[in-house]
Amino acid sequence: MAKKVKLKHEAPWIKIQSSAEDWTNLGRSGLMKIFHLLHLIRAFEQELLQLEKEGLTHGPVHSSIGQEGGAVGSVLAMQATDQMNGSHRGHHQFLAKALAYVGVFELDPCQNAAPEHIKEVLQKTLAEIMGLAQGYCCGRGGSMHLRWKDAGCLGTNAIVGGGVPLAAGVAWSRKHQNSNDAVFTCYGDGSAHIGSVQESLNLAAIWKLPLCFFVENNGYAVATTVAESAPDPRLSLRAAGSSIPAFLVDGMDPVAVMLATKEALKHMRAGKGPVMIEAEVYRYLHHSGGFAGSAFRYRSKEEEEQLKARDPLLRVAMEMKERKWLTDAEEEQIQNDVKAAMIEVAGRLTDGQYGKRSIIESLWPKPEFRDVGIRGDLSEFDGARFVEQSAFTGKLEPRKFIDIIADVMHKRMEEDPRIFCLGEDIHRLKGGTNGATRGLSERFTNRVLPTPITENSFVGAGGGAAMDGHFRPVIELMYPDFVLVAADQVFNQISRARHMYGGQTPMPVVLRTKVAMGTGYGSQHSMDPAGLYFNWPGWRIVAPSTPYDYVGLMNSALLCEDPVLVIEHVDLYNQIMDAPVEDLEFFIPLGKAKVIRSGSKFTVLTYLDMVHQCINVAEQHGFDAEVIDLRSLDRAGIDWDTVGNSIRKTNNVVIVEQGSVTASYGGNLSDEIQKRFFDYLDQPVKRVVGGEGSPSVSKVLENATISGRDEIIARFSEMVLEQGRPLQLVS
Hints:
Number of strands: 24
Distance between the termini: 81 Å
Mean pLDDT: 95
Pfam family, one: Transket_pyr
Strand order of the largest sheet: 1-8-9-5-4-2-3
InterPro entries: DH_E1, THDP-binding, Transketo_C/PFOR_II, Transketolase-like_Pyr-bd, Transketolase_C
CATH superfamily of the largest domain: Thiamin diphosphate (ThDP)-binding fold, Pyr/PP domains
CATH architecture of the largest domain: 3-Layer(aba) Sandwich
Radius of gyration: 29 Å
Keywords: Oxidoreductase, Thiamine pyrophosphate
Cofactor: thiamine diphosphate
Shape: elongated
CATH class of the largest domain: Alpha Beta
Strand content: 5-15%
């Protein structure tokens, strides 16, 4: 008979409850801080719901009424430089952190519960939620995207669990600045099941990050109960799987939350890694808006009344009154003062009386602000040394393309301690799967981070570190198809952050990936990602076809304050070309194409390995083609001057790419060309592009799916024939 040994996990899992002594030890001053901040947040939410009722908000309003105790208790234990982000229901956390930053705990609310600097925070927060220009994100973020970097408010997030990987990146950044700051990522019970949260728990544990996973378990994800979503409703049990200590606490008891937070901070500041706090709270209203959940019949009025009896505002008032630290008159005065402050703040943003108010027209953002801040203005390149290969006076030697990738990364990391690399297997196999990170882990031990196979979390962590403003991550996605695993972080978070948060958030992320068509890796490893990223404004895209251009474009990518996708091609890795070997200090401008071969009959627009294939076809078969290496592929990076000059000369265009027609870059480019240069075109834009299906493992089917030499010859021949000239091929 098998012997059975009962196992225990190593990380502690502790329930923390406050005692009467804990409440007394805080004294009148400590409890008054809690009482004051609770009422400020509650008054804010109540006025916001009134505005929503009057139709003066646009979009959902996720009220935090009932959940204030968790936010206030945790912030009371933090230092000003600790960081916090949250989810779509994050008004209470944002306000708690922001008001603490401006000194709310230094006030005596019996004297003045809402001086002007407090009203200013309330007003800017309310303006943001109403979509007005004076908001913290210029009205772009609204209720679900609140960010104020100065106060340590990293940003709330509309994607369930989406902010958690970003917080991990900020925690890594703070740890490697040798600060003693901790980071709190706040999310609800619905987020607890999301893969990015589970991935981030693991990542934080193996990197020993000062990150607190603060779970607000309010019992419902919209209308679905926790019991319906999880085998054990105690969500802090999840921490054990990553050997993370966890605390379970009554979130309606702000003192208990404060005690748990102090324990968590002690652990994190000692360098022992992450912690989880599960605060059991209750949202009084429905998922969004001012109606009770019982109005939608997924919970009862009796349940709501029972839980409302534990209201943290009532509990704190009761505890203070029992100790003779609060009178009925003081309570009424503070409540009236904060309510009056919110009415005044709302009045600064509206005209008219209750029920007939309207937003002051001049406070809306201007329509021309629509696209401002999608990307930066590239002012960081002022004074940069731009040198094309034709004007380069340094030493060039024949080198493998892959070797120059490692060389330029080594040089940049040696000179800039902010640069770090992360990705799967990048520390082994002589530089990852292809050798692009050769020698980096030996030279920069703490700045080459091998990751688990968790693309969503490590890409998001890179984004968080970049947002924090102190580091420049170079993330490797081993194959471009894997971006679909990390799509939330790549497209919802990294690409949108600068614009979403009001154009005020640089995102200096470099994402390296490779096109591996023709290698037999099949449908899920062979994507050309250019077309996908082109459709997500915010990303800059570069595709170097030579080692020289790789050096210049990677230097530019690492200088840029926007996220940059650097696409490589495996067919180029082992090709030997002239490469710089001593001087690696030059830049290639983002947004500058290059005419590789002059011609007069038709313009060829292409990138990566197809540049070389097009030149070879043109040379060997005598096509009078002007071949342009686009190099920069994003919407803002297309060099319309170079492209336009060529089109006006040849009056014919063919776009050449290797990959699938269904994820095509050329389709977008063709549309834009015909809009801009219709009058100069003698015929519609032609394209060389792969088939509809993804590449197959079968060599025959793969060759049929992707475009190559034969397809280029055929299309170039059509270009000549359709110009009404006889086809002449060089034998």
